[in-house]
Design a protein that fits this description.
Elements: H1 8-11, H2 16-24, H3 32-64, H4 68-84, H5 86-96, H6 98-115, H7 122-139, H8 142-152, H9 157-186, H10 189-209, H11 237-248, H12 252-267, H13 269-282, H14 287-312, H15 317-334, H16 342-353, H17 360-371, H18 376-405, H19 409-425, H20 435-441
Helix pairs in contact: 3-4, 3-7, 3-8, 3-9, 3-10, 3-13, 4-7, 4-18, 5-6, 5-8, 5-11, 5-18, 6-7, 6-10, 8-9, 8-18, 9-10, 9-14, 9-17, 12-13, 12-17, 12-18, 12-19, 13-14, 13-18, 14-16, 14-17, 15-17, 15-19, 17-18
Pfam families: MFS_1
Domain Major facilitator superfamily (MFS) profile: 34-434
Transmembrane segments: 31-49, 69-90, 102-120, 126-146, 158-180, 186-210, 254-277, 289-311, 332-354, 408-429
């Protein structure tokens, strides 16, 4: 291991146990894979927390008498804050370190979800599952994946990003059917207790094993040299976030990426992730069976998103996004025609699931190619904010459509059309690096 000494505030810090383990595994495995595994698990738990409201719609409606528009309002706030926190979380990771940021998020999630079991009024739903869970999941959002990938990996960056992105799908796979069963047999409170306990268990592992950077444990990034490592930033995270946005917003490509991810969120988290269980329930499908359908999508997306990461190292990311959005749009057009039969829904789950969030690795690749490794996590955070703005709009708007029209079908058709139009839009993104933006960042 290279003996590297660096100012603590330049490359962050590492727990003593992490430094010891990094020395022990030297020559057999790069410690970046441990950092990636911890990021994967953190994102997996965050995905489980974010998925929980999807199984709470019907139990809360039955137990407390709240209508779906009221519950959807809290979910919409949650989704919006999850995305809006992204750039600030990335800036916070630059300013105070990755480990402290994650621990803050996990602590907030654990306390909030456990205490949410005491709620009896809609405003308490807005405060807990809306405001506080939104802030907590925002601190453990996909900007964590972008930060870890850009700090720890030069080689295999796309593959690792695909694996970390797939953690969201795996979170659904692990948590959704179990949470639906818990809500059915033990009441909705059991869901909050379960996801809160998961966050509590994970926090010590992050605190003991996750360094802020490779150099903090005496390493260079995988496949690179010490010169490739990005030093930890300094300054006010809010200033960092908005200054980076100011540079990026001068580029048309930023707005094309932002707009495409807006539609991505509208057609995934906000629509299918939030409302598919309720839509299936309307068609006579029990909650546990509907949750299993989302879990099946998660299984397919685990394969599709990991493959997307591998492809993003080899294929023009714009072409990948063209196919992903186009195929997603067709699958949403098909859903109302499936008859919600076992056969029809299985086809939808496979077709839609393969690119549920396969858009993330090529989008991160385009952001990195366009704006450089240093700014990429924060800029991706702003692009991700667009994703969650679209998701929030879909979560709330679809709840209104269901309440007023008595059907989810119009929402599926609108989202499908938006995806097809976005497939064309992404072809106009320019992959060339923005030298002016990079120069301003120096």
């Amino acid at each position: 291991m290279t003996d590297v000494t660096a100012p603590k505030n330049s490359f962050g810090s590492a727990p003593p146990l992490a430094r010891h383990l990094a020395r022990q595994v030297e020559g057999r495995m790069h410690y970046g894979w441990v950092a990636a595994a911890l990021a994967f698990t953190t994102l997996l738990v965050g995905a489980g927390v974010r998925a929980a409201p999807g199984v709470l719609f019907v139990p809360l409606e039955q137990a407390l008498g709240w209508d779906r528009a009221t519950i959807a309002a809290a979910v919409s706030l949650n989704i919006f804050l999850y995305g809006f926190m992204g750039p600030f979380a990335a800036a916070l990771m630059q300013a105070v370190g990755v480990r402290r940021t994650i621990l803050t998020g996990l602590g907030l999630l654990a306390v909030t979800t456990i205490t949410s079991t005491l709620m009896t009024q809609p405003w308490q739903m807005m405060l807990s599952w809306g405001l506080l869970v939104g802030l907590g999941t925002g601190l453990t959002s996909m900007t964590l994946a972008a930060t870890v990938v850009n700090r720890w990996f030069i080689k295999q960056r796309g593959l690792v990003m695909g694996l970390l992105t797939a953690s969201s799908a795996t979170g659904q796979l692990v948590f959704l059917p179990g949470m639906a069963a818990l809500a059915t047999h033990f009441g909705w409170q059991a869901v909050g207790l379960t996801v809160g306990a998961a966050a509590l268990v994970l926090a010590p592992l992050v605190g003991l094993l996750l360094p802020d950077s490779p150099r903090a444990v005496g390493l260079a990034p995988l496949g690179g040299t010490l010169e490739d490592e990005l030093p930890q930033g300094s300054g006010n995270p809010i200033v960092i976030a908005f200054t980076t946005l100011g540079r990026a917003s001068k580029s048309v490509d930023f707005w094309l990426l932002f707009g495409s991810f807006f539609v991505c969120g509208l057609s995934t988290n906000g629509l299918i992730g939030t409302h598919l269980i309720s839509a299936c329930f309307d068609q006579g499908i029990p909650e546990v069976a509907a949750a299993s359908l989302l879990a099946l999508m998660g299984l397919f997306d685990l394969v599709g998103t990991t493959g997307s990461g591998w492809l993003s190292d080899r294929v023009d990311s714009r072409k990948l996004l063209f196919w992903y959005y186009g195929l997603r749009g067709l699958s949403l057009f098909y859903l109302p025609l499936s008859g919600f039969s076992l056969y029809g829904l299985s086809i939808f789950a496979a077709f839609y699931g393969l690119d549920w969030i396969a858009t993330v690795p090529p989008t991160v690749r385009l952001v990195t190619d366009r704006f450089g490794r240093r700014d990429a996590p924060v800029i991706f955070g702003w692009v991700g904010a667009g994703h969650q703005m679209g998701a929030a709009l879909a979560a709330y708007g679809t709840g209104i459509i269901r309440t007023e029209w008595g059907s989810y079908f119009p929402a599926f058709q609108v989202a499908g059309l938006a995806c097809v139009l976005t497939a064309i839009m992404v072809l106009f993104i320019n992959r060339r690096r923005n030298t002016a933006t990079l120069a301003a960042a120096e």
